[in-house]
Structure formats: structure tokens, C-alpha cells
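ok so for the tutorial part 2 we go from a plain amino acid sequence to predicted C-alpha cells. step 1 is just haveing the sequence, like this:
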Amino acid sequence: MQTIPGLVPTLQVGSFEGGQFNANGQATTGNLFLVDGQYDNDSRRGGSQGTQARVTLDSMAEYQVQTHQYGAEYGGSTGVVVNSVTKSGTNKLTGRLFDYFQDSSMTATDYFLKQRGEKNPESGSNVYGGSVGGPIVKNKLFYFFNYEGTNASEAANLSFPAAAAPLAVSYSTTTKFHGPNTFMRFDYNLNGNNQISFRWTREAIITENDSIEDDLAILQSVGPTSGYVAVLVFCQYISTGVASSLYNRPMFLWLMCPVLLYWITRVWVLARRRVLTDDPVVFAIKDPVSWICGAVVLLLAIAAAV
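step 2 — the prediction. this is what the C-alpha cells look like for a chain of 306 residues:
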């Protein structure tokens, strides 16, 4: 499709989804993807994710691309229209098997790893599958079946200067996943003018091992717990005689605890949703809700002191 005039690819390297095309400067949300004439847009994020059902190469007989002057049958689109036409069985039994393999032994060693005398982490991909099609009842009923499996290991090398230790240490990690894609089609010829067709496709992207996500899970449990323990220590301080000797009305200090618990919980929820990307102190300086929490804590401290 990259050779078609007016199309500019928006690729998502290393991802099964999100790849798109801009047609004549139009937004990717205006694209229309069809499978055998049926709507196949992924409606998430306003349709910017591309197709919903991925049609593999061995399942596709042909594809049609239109970038302008569409017919009336292609309404609702201002971008590119892509119609994938799937394969069907014929009176001749046909099939195909394939396997494509690549791993880290076929890849040059990363420059920074080579400087440290290390090897590439385990990575690579193995795409395999096959298809078969033919007649069930000659000239009447046909079938076509295709399966494509993908086993992949994506490596990431994170390098930090030595001065960043121990807060940041260089390391390598690997994420393993597999994605089976299955397609079936049955066609029945009622007569010369009418046909009944059935199509079924299924794809799943399953992560087997993601050490980065495992690390995040640990941090997401340790982080909030540390904050809650700090509030507990503050409660212990309030209940001692030290607070009573420093504050005239220490009961107001107890009201700070729910405010602190709310702020700590909110910060970690936003971090889990990938909304909080700054240092928490920088975030608090910019965040209006944090201003309100800080003002409430300050007023309670003044009330406890006077």
C-alpha cells in the first residue's frame, strides 16, 4: 500500500495494532476498512487503531484501495477505503504450509551491550501456519481454512550512566507473547445467481512473560503501602505526648490523615493509568487537587497550633 500515490504510512513498530495510513492529508479516523464489503474498523480511540479483525496474507485473495472519488457503496469515509477480499475454496484441493524464523543469533550485538561485554537478550520471532481449501460437494459447497501463529520475544536494552546508580542501573529484559489467528470460510451455491457464505475469524494476543509489567506490579503494591505506613507513623506521633506538648489542639491533626490517604491513593491511581508521568513533587506543584489538599493540611496545622 505504500506504493499507492497519496498514501503515507503511520507505522506502529513492534505492535500488532495501530498501523494506519494517511490519504491525501486526511485524518486516520476517516479511513474505512472492509472485509468482503463488511465494516471492519476498530472503534476504539475514535477509529484511529485501524482494523478490528486482522486478515492474514494467506487468507487474502486480493485487496482494493481507493483514496478518492468513491462510489456510493463506500459512504462514511473521507480517507482511504481498503477492502480485503478473502479466499474461498474451489473444486480443486489446494493447501500451503510456511514457517518464518528469526532470533537473536541472527542479529548484530547492540552497541552498548558490546561495550559492556554482554550478548543480546533473547529475542526473535517465529511465524508459522498453513491453509487448505477445496470442495465438500463439487460445484456446490466449498470450504477454506487458514491458521497463522506468531511466537515473538521482544527485547529491550535500557542503558544508564554509571552516575545514575543505584537509582538506575542498566539492564536488559524480554517480553514473550504469541498470537494465534484462525480463519474459516464456507460457500454454498444455491443457483447461478445466489450464494450463501459463512466466515469466521479469531485472533488473540497473549503475553506469556513481561518482566517490565512484573516489576510494575511489585512497585504498585509497595508504593501505596509505603505511603499508608507513613500515615500510620504520623498517627502514632499524634497519639504520643510529644504532639500534645507542641500543639494546643492536637485533635485537628487527626483530620489530616484522611486527606493524606486520599492524596496518596489518587497519585498511585493516576500513575497506574499512565496519567502521572512527572516526579510526584513536580506533579503536586502543577495539580489543582494537590493544591486543595495542601491548603486543607496547612489550615488544620494552624488550627492545631493556635
